[in-house]
Design goal:
The complex is a heterodimer.
Chain A: H1 2-20, H2 22-59, E1 62-66, H3 72-84, E2 88-94, H4 96-106, H5 108-114, E3 127-132, H6 138-146, E4 151-155, H7 160-200, H8 202-210, H9 215-233, H10 235-251, E5 255-256, E6 261-262, H11 266-296
Antiparallel strand pairs in A: 1-3, 1-4, 2-3, 5-6
Chain B: E1 2-12, E2 18-28, E3 32-36, H1 43-50, E4 58-63, E5 66-67, H2 76-80, E6 83-86, H3 98-108, H4 113-126, H5 142-154, E7 160-164, H6 172-189, E8 192-197, H7 200-206, E9 209-214, E10 217-222
Parallel strand pairs in B: 3-8, 3-9, 6-7, 7-8
Antiparallel strand pairs in B: 1-2, 1-4, 4-5, 9-10
Classes of the chains: A alpha+beta, B alpha/beta.
């Protein structure tokens, strides 16, 4: 109860102090706002990128064409060898008759041409359709399969996909770098704000010490003040996430450029991101004020 | 029973100046003591050591059973809660009114609102300022401001009231009022009062226990002492 009363008092003091030194608080708040907007954009982007790379990865298949005239026994051997490769997740064997049937279903022209093919003169090849565990290693796996005996051609997304994935990954890295730099700048600004608050309340602090306030009582209002700055700074970014992403999603009908790049549905995604943004804001504020208190409040 | 007991206390500041040489003395519970001495006599240092603003270089200082000399920084607040401290320059918060200034002590300690109200009004009555509750410090005279500071110091009912030259900024008449208030507190609440001063008139009039310091040494300690010109 006593602790609760003191905490309430700290929160009241923190809000008072934010508005008393408003010009300085505004500098910290706007810095937090800008940081959090970029953080929010990065989170939105990276979650989406992760989402659709996963979608693409699901569709990525290595198609292994087996030489015509390979014996059944040899095909079984091949199957064993493919199974053993570490990056292979699953595979399906499709004989040339199955492939023919599938192609015939796809178009009428194929159907007309292919009806004349029989077991003997079917030019299609038996195939393995292999799915991999890690998309980044797909070319390596394809090479390994190619080197096997009895395999003629191996085809997969041919570089396009893994290039895309690496491009996204490097964009993500740059974004992380910017976010970290901004967070550092923000923390310094908060340290400065809290430092000035501490200096402007020196007299009060010295009297608090004289009348027997514990360190906890003296420090808490300043730390809460930092958290309040973070909280206020997260208002605009959260609005941006809540309304901006929704508008963005609706404007593009849920996917970018092609159906391949699917966006994440706004609900509950935006609420989760908003919570993350608020959390980061409060945490950054707390780190800044805590280090200012440690540095400038000699208790 | 002794409330304060100093044994072989020595204080040397970091710049090499020695303020107190081998000081031993004791002060009984419930007494009213003047600490007198000129500038540089070490009386301010002594007082600062009692509320643990300064640490002695060697020796022990027992206040209410606690060895203040060995008190860790983190625990100082526990000592301060048992003390009331009054300064020459009042040290009031200008943005708070009389009531809030006195209530500040209890608020910081997290007391309940109605409890705070009861204690604050009682303390203000004791110093005779009950009719100025809503005034701000700059609307009060020096003597009144000092009485607010005294109310703030005693509101938590401390065992020991330490006053560092509380009348230093006041004219003789106001000074006498302040000392009368302190005497009243000493009598009615049983609070031990320690007052550093160099006001000759007050010491001679009050006929209380006197501790005389000179150049960091104890010259004399006597009951019903007077301020002699000998030092």
């Amino acid at each position: 109860m006593k602790l609760f009363r003191m905490l309430l008092r700290s929160i009241r003091d923190a809000f008072k102090s934010v508005f008393r030194n408003f010009s300085l608080s505004l500098a910290s708040i706007s810095c937090i706002t800008i940081t959090l907007i970029i953080v929010a954009l990065s989170i939105l982007a990276s979650f989406n990128v992760e989402n659709f790379t996963k979608e693409i990865e699901k569709d990525m298949t290595i198609v292994v064409f087996v030489d015509n005239g390979t014996s059944e026994k040899k095909i079984d051997e091949l199957e064993e060898q493919i199974k053993k490769l570490s990056n292979v997740d699953s595979y399906v064997f499709k004989g040339k008759e199955t492939v023919k049937a599938e192609m015939q279903e796809e178009s009428d022209i194929f159907k007309a041409i292919m009806t004349e093919w029989n077991e003997e003169n079917n030019p299609l090849k038996d195939t393995f359709q292999v799915k991999v565990k890690e998309i980044a290693k797909i070319s390596e796996t394809a090479k390994k399969i190619k080197s096997l005996d009895g395999v003629s051609v191996v085809r997969y997304g041919e570089g396009m996909v893994d290039q895309m994935v690496t491009a996204f990954q490097s964009i993500e890295k740059v974004a992380y770098g910017i976010v970290i730099a901004l967070v550092v700048v923000t923390v310094f600004l908060i340290i400065n704000t809290i430092k000035l608050t501490i200096f402007s309340r020196k007299r009060e602090i010295s009297i608090m010490r004289l009348v027997g306030a514990s360190n906890f009582t003296i420090k808490t209002p300043f730390i809460i003040e930092g958290m309040v700055l973070g909280l206020i700074g997260s208002i605009i970014p959260v609005c941006l996430v809540l309304f901006g992403y929704l508008a963005f999603y609706q404007y593009f009908n849920g996917y970018l450029y092609s159906k391949l790049i699917q966006l994440i549905a706004p609900e509950p995604f935006i609420y989760m991101v908003s919570l993350m943004v608020i959390g980061i804001g409060i945490l950054v504020g707390m780190i800044g004020s805590a280090s200012a208190v440690r540095k400038y409040l000699k208790v | 029973m002794d409330l304060i007991r100093l044994k072989n206390v020595k204080k040397q500041y970091k710049n090499g100046v020695t303020a107190i040489y081998d000081l031993s003395l004791s002060i009984k519970k419930g007494s009213f003591v003047f600490i007198i001495g000129g500038s540089g006599s070490g009386k301010s240092t002594l007082i600062k050591m009692l509320y643990r603003e300064e640490k002695p270089t060697s020796g022990s200082i027992i206040v209410g059973g606690v060895n203040v000399a060995k008190l860790r920084n983190k625990k100082v607040y526990k000592l301060r809660r048992k003390l009331g401290i009054v300064f020459q320059d009042y040290r009031l918060l200008p943005k708070l009114n009389v009531y809030e200034n006195v209530a500040f002590t209890l608020e910081v300690l997290g007391e309940k609102k109605d409890e705070i109200r009861r204690k604050v009004l009682k303390a203000l009555e004791l110093v005779g300022l009950k009719n100025k509750v809503h005034n701000y410090p700059d609307q009060l005279s020096g003597g009144e401001q000092q009485r607010v500071a005294i109310a703030r110091a005693i509101v938590n009912e401390p065992k020991l009231l330490i006053c560092d030259e509380p009348t230093g900024n006041l004219d003789p008449e106001r000074s006498m009022e302040i000392v009368k208030v302190l005497e009243e507190i000493n009598k009615t609440c049983g609070t031990t009062v320690l007052m550093a001063t160099h006001d000759k008139e007050i010491v001679n009039k009050m006929q209380k226990q006197v501790i005389v310091l000179k150049e960091g040494r104890l010259i004399k300690q006597e009951e019903r002492g007077t301020y002699s010109e000998a030092f």
